[in-house]
Amino acid sequence: MQTTITVNGTAQTLDVDPRTTLLDALREHLGLTGSKKGCDHGQCGACTVLVNGVRINSCLSILAMHDGDQVTTIEGLGQPGALHPVQQAFLENDALQCGYCTPGQICSTVGMLQEAADGWASRETADLTAPTALTDAEIRERMSGNICRCSAYPQILAAIRDLAGEVA
Questions:
Q1: Nearest by Cα to 44 from 32, 35, 53
Q2: DSSP tally for the chain: helices H, then strands E
């Protein structure tokens, strides 16, 4: 099956088995190995990418569903010497240990900050009419789909808290 997607600003036409996941297309067909295959069940968030600006678990999404979509992976967020603000905040707060989950954590943070800026509610949102306040509880809830087996959560929270002050 032929599918055309734009990945990190470049149009890509892939002719793959119709059962191919977005994650497998990115890793195996396009050589973009930043997104990780952690659990392959949508439970860990290591495969998180942005599709049309919205974060998704790419291991659960079939490539054919994304014909014409814009996909941003960790490779498309920043460049050496010009890191994305989320990448910079993770670096400054030492918000990684082994690094396996970091690409998914960063992509999820980018999507989560946009969701909060757009007024999307979470389970922790107390007042649906007020601007979203990214409290520690709110950040934890919104990032709960991303697991860090090394337990760098305090540093990840600190990085996001630093960024939340910029978008709030």
A1: 35
A2: 5, 5
Q: Which residues pair with 57 in a beta bridge?
A: 48
CATH code, residues 85-164: 1.10.150.120
Residues ≥6 apart with Cβ < 8 Å to 166: 85
pLDDT tens digits, one per residue of 50-73: 999 999 999 999 999 999 999 999
CATH class in words for 2-76: alpha beta
Which regions of the chain carry the CATH code 1.10.150.120? 85-164
Q: What pairs with residue 15 in β-bridges? A: 2
- State pTM to two decimals: 0.94
Partnered with residue 50 across adjacent β-strands are 55, 72
For residue 9, the Cα-to-chain-centroid distance in whole angstroms is: 16
One-character DSSP codes across 57-73: EGGGSBGGGGTT-EEE-
Q: What is the CA radius of gyration of the chain?
A: 16
Phi then psi for residue 12, to 5 deg, are -130, 125
Report yes or no: 76 and 85 within 8 Å, Cβ to Cβ: no
Tell me the two tokens of residue 49.
């990418």
